[in-house]
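Title: Prediction job returns without error message
Component: structure pipeline
Severity: low
Priority: P3
Assignee: unassigned

Description:
Job completed but the reporter wants confirmation the result is attached to the right record. Sequence as submitted:
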Amino acid sequence: MSCLVSLTLFSMSSVNIEIWSDIACPWCWVGKRSLEAAIASSDHKVAIRWRAFELNPDAPANAPEAVDYVARLADKYGTGRDEAEGFIARMVEAGRSRGLEIRFDRIRPSNTFDAHRLLAFAYQHDRQTELKESLFRAYLHEGRSISDPETLLAVAIETGLVASDVSAVLDGTDYAEDVRSDEDLARKLGITGVPCFVFTQLNEGISGAQPPEVLSDAMDRAAQR
């Protein structure tokens, strides 16, 4: 993974973290837990914004039923089943170490574009982090299709967003430009893998589901700026 930052996004008194991630990314959920642990052990005020990144923009809008994820990974990376099983086992264990139960036997590969549109909407209503968590759980644990409008509506309502407002977003194209803008900015910053935590005061990005200590150190350095 790469996360090379070459420009400053903004600067405020709090520690500002812009996070590029995709809901269809187990490591991103693990990384979210690491960040939460880092924040919980810190005295710093932290402002977070979740940015859109599609790992597979060509994923189907009509998600299939749960798939043989071992075969899917083996085909994607050109490896055997044993290697793919090992990769999944490492992700499951990493999730378990952060209190997560990632269920690859339930995952329904889904297009995440509309989910990212909904997250951009939720940011405007101060519910983005809550929705992000609910979408991770829906996709990676419950095996729900996050390209399905009814699922997205239900998850958003569970998160506390207003049903009529959410329906209006899902029925139209609102926030599509926000998603494209995030993805364009990721390319400009050199972000090619997620999660990527960009600490704006440091003009620095940290890739991958790093331990909380790594993120805590970056937060301390950002606060000193």
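Comment from assignee: result matches the submitted record. Confidence is low (pLDDT under 50) at residues 4-12.
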